[in-house]
Amino acid sequence: MKLSKRDQKHIWHPLTQHQTAQPALGIVKAKGALLWDEAGNEYIDGIASWYTTMYGHCNEHIVAAVSQQMKELDFVMFSGLTHEPAVQLSEQLMNILPENQQKIFFNDNGSTAVEAGIKMALQFHHNAGAKRDTLIAFENGFHGDTFGAMSASGLASYNAPFEDFLLKVIRIPTPQENNLDEVLQKLETAITSTSCAAFIFEPLVQGAAGMKFHTAEGLDAIIKKCQKAGVICIADEIMTGFGKTGTNFACDQLQNNPDIMCLGKALTAGMFPLSITSCSQKVFDSFLSDEVSKGFFHAHTFSAHPLGCAAALAGLELLNAAEIVEQRNYIERAHQHFAARIKNHKKIKEVRCKGVILALDLNVEMERYGSVRDALYQFFMERGVALRPLGSTVYLLPPYSIAKKELQKIYDTVEEALAIA
Ligand SMILES: Cc1ncc(COP(=O)(O)O)c(C=O)c1O
After folding, report:
1. Pairing of strands 348-354, 357-362
2. Going by fewer Cβ within 10 Å, which terminus of the chain is more open, N or C?
3. What are phi and psi for residue 98, nearest 5 degrees?
4. What average pLDDT is seen over the chain?
5. pLDDT tens digits for range 123-153
6. What atom of ligand 1 comes closest to residue 144's alpha carbon?
7. Could you give the domains of the chain?
8. What distance in angstroms lies between residue 390's CA and the mean position of ligand 1's atoms?
């Protein structure tokens, strides 16, 4: 029996209304930017499998590192014990993270990295004897699906049934070219009228919101104001991290460093679920005490999994390797060229690029997971291009290793969609 048929019997898929959804497509093989289904059809992975496999699927360098690690040390718990891949990864990350990041806490996925970051910020104040209980977050942000992360997220399509159970959050608009005074005024009101513990944000690009951008200057001003008021700043780089916005981290384009950073997804090049919450010495030191309870009593069984650390180390070796940098630059130029060519198309409201990210908003009203959006998704898949429109926003975030003709095929297919949309 076909995979997609067997799947339907017992599997409950994420982000899926099973009453109306098409059967899931059975994928049997992946290499580079390509996926193959069980019928032998080929697809270009235009969004690097939720922006994880940035060096291409089954990258030989990463596969070799993980295989080698598997033979030496598979797994060991991380409380009271340590191991070479984790220590080495912490050392390597120090070379590329903003200089104030000094400590690495390991988790196992993006949401748990955010959850740990929020808890660190809340306990930072608690340990100092202050009761600060409110988060500040951007409108339409996305930070994950566990309760703390979901509270910080502002997308109703994910949160609606749980609204009554969330942490206290005040939302501010993202800073654009013309609204910084208004944003800073709202921030001022939030800071003065409530006890704000932390400001959490996706730096420069809000992924799930539809690859929406905001200004580095505005974000810098917000961080500065928050830090002045003792509000811990948490940069969620789970989507933006590891080169996607043109720099190693989006925060590299800021003047003010965040106090805490969350890393996931491309950290392990999609090879293994592992995430990191890094923090400044000041945050770490606030947990030091003769009182045991002031420590951070938070753990996940698979923290610092050696296989994930080995994948991350191999990925870091590639991140700034000459051929990857060349590819990143090539994709950036190709996106800009494509954007300039299509920007005046009557079906397009806006097209924007940053690093290897290209997003275009269609002039068509679409629900985030509605039937028109689903038809567009199917249109791309039928032509061998795996893109997942976010409502009426189509975005491209290809693996750095994508071949020129593969990227061209994605552009051609988007143009074909525009012709009939
Ligand atoms: C910015 C951001 N934060 C957090 C998450 C949650 O990560 P995960 O799905 O690994 O839990 C995501 C996932 O898309 C994300 O884009």
Report:
1. antiparallel
2. N
3. -50, 145
4. 96
5. 999 999 999 999 999 999 999 999 999 999 9
6. 6
7. 3-59+321-420 (3.90.1150.10), 62-319 (3.40.640.10)
8. 15
